[in-house]
Fold:
Amino acid sequence: MEVRSFNRAALWTAAFFLAALAAMAVLVARQRSALSGMLATVDWPLCLAALAALGLYFMLLWDAWHRTVRSMGERADRRDTFEIWFVSQLGKYVPGRVMTIIGRIFLSQRRGMRGAIALAATYVELVLLVITNLAATAAMELLFARRLVHGSLALWLPLLAALTVPALHPKLMTRALNRALRLLRRDPVAIDLSFERILALAAMYVSAWAVYGLSGMLLVKGMTGLTWSAAAAAMPAFVFSWLLGLISFVVPGGLGVREGALVVLLAPVVPVATGLSISLVSRVMWMACELAGAAVSAIRRRGAR
Structure:
């Protein structure tokens, strides 16, 4: 039965990947001439700087998870948490997103850590990512764009970010997590963190979103030649498109969803063909960083044997 379930999941994963890739291929084919002309004028040093900033964004996320695990009393080695975080990231390309959590727990236990700590730290990470994403999008929208997020989003994003701050309290997070675990018939987990520590971690995630927005600005500048102020207006689009990709649970890694959202959100700044080029390059850079992190982990593990 387990083999059948695994095979069924593998088939669904392959189907979703093929469907998403087919949709992207159609978009690329329709905009082929515009894409080829644009890539010929790319400022590669700026694009490489955008890639470096994206790599820094991933490193900040890993470091925040490492600090969360340590703050919960787990004496985790930085090399171990680096491997756990980056390798488990690849699990998000399986529909449903649960493989990232399962992978974190499994790899943590293999490294001598408690699975409950890995689960709690990952839950804290997810809550902080969502709430700080809203806050960062609202701040960037007000500071740099003021017109990029369409309609009333510019008004309710700051309000929504403010209303979700109480959800950061450890008691509320513990209650919400254990309610979900109860439905899954799993043992309860305690989030052993002070509210002050959670706020400090939230500040780290806000800085990570700032770096991610900077990466997007550099990419837009490098691929379009827009002024710095116009390129800066694209920052909230990159940050908010991540959240839209996250909530698409069925699509592996938000593949296609995040790119489509980015094209729409960039429309006030660049044409559709240009936005499509930027979104595709952004996805390639994203996956390159994830694969590089997993590859470094594999090389380290192999060298340690």
In short: Confidence is low (pLDDT under 50) at residues 1-7. The CA atoms of residues 52 and 215 lie 8 Å apart.
